[in-house]
Write a structure and sequence with these properties.
GO biological process, one term: dUMP biosynthetic process
CATH class: Mainly Beta
Number of strands: 10
EC number: 3.6.1.23
InterPro entries: dUTPase, dUTPase-like, dUTPase-like_sf, dUTPase_trimeric
Helix content: under 10%
Cofactor: Mg(2+)
Number of domains: 1
Strand order of the largest sheet: 1-4-8-6
Radius of gyration: 19 Å
Keywords: Hydrolase, Magnesium, Metal-binding, Nucleotide metabolism
CATH topology: Deoxyuridine 5'-Triphosphate Nucleotidohydrolase, Chain A
CATH superfamily: Deoxyuridine triphosphatase (dUTPase)
Strand content: 35-45%
Amino acid sequence: MTDIEVLISTTDETVPTPAYSHPGDAGADLTTREAVTIAPGERATVRTGVCIALPAGYVALVHPRSGLAARHGVTIVNAPGTVDAGYRGEIRVTLLNTDARESVAFAVGDRIAQLVIQRVEFARFVPVSSLPGSHRGESGFGSTGTA
């Protein structure tokens, strides 16, 4: 396992540095910097107070927290969110309350997402007149069978 250095700044000195809850965890916790209540079926974009500078060739992916999904039906609208290496602004997370009946409230400092850092492979797109065949062929979304 190789550690990479990710530079971090925060919007104020009370913002915690993202941290891994347990040894071997893939995602570091992000917390909210604002209190917010999300009604059933609603979404809210919340501030984390965290800004990062990734090395070239890396991406930070913002993933939902499984506990929030299981207990409250909270997920991230564009999961995983992508933080490109060149982005230097504050990481914000768009949360969605999928519960049909209950609102969910977050206080400042509550864990709302996980930040996963990964290497990126860069593709060289090569135009061709036709693609080689495959087992699946041109079958589209949902074509691999029924549940």
